[in-house]
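[audit] Reproducing an earlier prediction to check determinism. Same input, same settings, fresh worker. If the tokens differ from the archived copy the diff job will pick it up downstream; this log only records the rerun itself.
[audit] input (151 residues):
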Amino acid sequence: MSVLKQFNLTRTSLLTFLGELDEAIVDRESKYFDNTIRWYIGNSLLMNEKLLFVSKNSFKLPDQYRELFSTDIKASDWTKEVPSLEELLGHLEDQQNRINNFDELFWKSEVKFKVPHGHVETHGDLLIMLSHREAELLGKIKTMKQVYDAE
């Protein structure tokens, strides 16, 4: 399976599941999880953007996303208005389209930084890692919803 097929399968599955969520559930906090669904969505979006769109001109997310969804931030720390689920879904779709517009040469080119926890040399390797991370995220969000529904 090509790296783009793998990414698109994962991203489309994530978008489909998220599109069926109620806005009210995405900010729910629980003792079982260290953050909210909205935070996890935003963090995944931000990490993909930071790692694949490294130039200032190609980074397309609002500046506030760094303050809301960075790894060292928790949803409980938020003091600013957060993007709606619909806005996050729009950014995920736009990001998917931009990722699909990279050419084969980009995917074969070497990344200019070290990535922990794996053997990542090319942008194609990086996309495989990010797709895996996003598939794990989908599983986590599904589990979170199951727990919330059972509570």
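[audit] rerun output stored. Observation attached for the diff report: The helical segments are 3-19, 37-52, 64-69, 85-100, 104-108, 123-150.
[audit] end
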